[in-house]
Design a protein that fits this description.
The structure is a homodimer of 253-residue chains.
Chain A lengths: L2 E4 L4 H13 L4 E4 L10 H6 L7 E4 L2 E3 L2 H11 L10 H33 L5 H8 L5 H11 L5 H24 L10 H10 L2 H4 L10 H12 L1 H7 L7 H11 L2
Parallel strand pairs in A: 1-2
Antiparallel strand pairs in A: 1-3, 3-4
Helix pairs in contact in A: 1-3, 1-8, 1-11, 4-6, 4-7, 4-8, 7-10
């Protein structure tokens, strides 16, 4: 049995969930509650010493880093192929995954971090250090220290906002060329994008709407209507539900 | 004819050069002189509006972003396959490329930037703005502004140094499991790594040496001895030559 250790169907956590629902492959879903910081628990760190989600186990092999893992699963499992066969379209798929992983998702995560920061109680430095000490990756430790200390820099939010705006224009442009990000078929690029931006029409209504980004809106409608997408979001235990429902209502799907 | 627009056989610029020499495929090498900032010239920006190197043209298709481009070229061209066929080893190859692209290369580039910064004349803000205004990507513009203003932050250098140290330990660990990064065969992971770290034994002699990292040193010797590697470095017009020669001398190859 395929084992998936991850949080909600959201961003990196959600990539294997959405993909496996699209492929129609059964798996055991081990919920790792990021709210309770279970990804830094001793048991989880034994599985994945970096304390990142998701971790996938297939045939006794432990796979981490979600985008390379998706390519592995697409090659190793039954079900519809989620990668184009044409080398150029494959390049395009990987170009998009790279853009999303390096630019777009981190920019969105910056806003997620700022929101988490605002919601936090004021804590003294000692309490913060006690909480961050189990985080194995130093760069993640630093980010969490800033979030807990309510010190997410304004300049970082401005730059993230700019990147999101640039990304939205890029989506619209790409979807004017092809119905999906890497050609005429739904692919891993759409999976990585959709699980990350599914609520964008709700979050950025002035920039993402039928007048300014008709192709992007059409892509959202097609993706939100897919049975695989619906099944993946149905796995959520609270975090994604409200935003998915709002997005569907706004899109009329 | 395959067209490659790029700078020296070094880091991202060098990836297609090393790969094409390994595959034994002929190509036209259009040298883009980063020292003269030709990547921001009008002619080059028409080809690649982001002003990044390399840009590869194959069958009339313009390919950017070096790592996805390498996978495309491996699928589209003749010559020895540079990707393992086993899905798990492919995952491992992509895991390494991702790690190098996201963590290791940017950390090394930070030192490159600091070196460039030290070598620069003191310039006033207006002169700096005049120079950075053609850089199309805002995040690159910001980095260059810091470099030109001699303001590369000390904390960024410290963090980069830590990442390089952690990366060196990861290389040694991976090469204890397999002779190459993604198994028993030389692959794109080794190409991306080698073109980036080729001078590491010279740059970090206290950490990278036969006593502390015997497997990594052995990998350097095997990679530096490859005809493809030698042919790729021979394409350099000055920048890499000295460091390659020093590394070979130290390694005795």
């Amino acid at each position: 049995m395929l084992e998936v250790y991850t949080w909600e169907p959201n961003a990196n956590s959600g990539k294997p969930l959405l993909m496996l629902k699209e492929k129609g492959v059964e798996f055991a879903y081990h919920y790792i509650d990021l709210g309770r910081r279970e990804q830094h628990s001793r048991a989880y760190l034994e599985l994945n010493p970096n304390g990142t989600v998701p971790t996938v186990i297939h045939d006794g092999r432990v796979l981490t880093e979600s985008s390379p893992t998706l390519e592995y699963l697409d090659a190793a499992l039954e079900g519809p192929a989620l990668r184009p066969r044409d080398p150029y379209l494959l390049w395009r798929m990987r170009w998009w995954i790279r853009f999303l992983d390096r630019h777009f998702c981190p920019a969105l995560a910056m806003f997620g971090g700022a929101g988490a920061s605002r919601a936090m109680p004021v804590q003294d430095a000692e309490t913060i250090e006690r909480q961050v000490k189990d985080i194995p990756i130093p760069e993640r430790r630093r980010v969490w220290r800033l979030i807990m200390a309510k010190q997410v820099p304004e300049a970082a939010l401005e730059e993230s906002s700019r990147r999101i705006g640039a990304g939205i224009r890029l989506f619209e442009q790409a979807l004017a060329e092809h119905p999906y990000l890497a050609g005429s078929e739904f692919s891993l690029a759409d999976i990585v994008a959709m699980i990350t931006v599914y609520a964008m029409p709700v979050i950025r209504p002035e920039e993402v709407n039928d007048r300014k980004t008709p192709r992007y809106m059409d892509w959202f409608r097609r993706c939100h209507a897919r049975p695989g997408t619906r099944a993946a979001f149905a796995l959520g235990r609270g975090w994604v539900g409200g935003r998915v429902a709002e997005a569907r209502k706004l899109l009329g799907v």
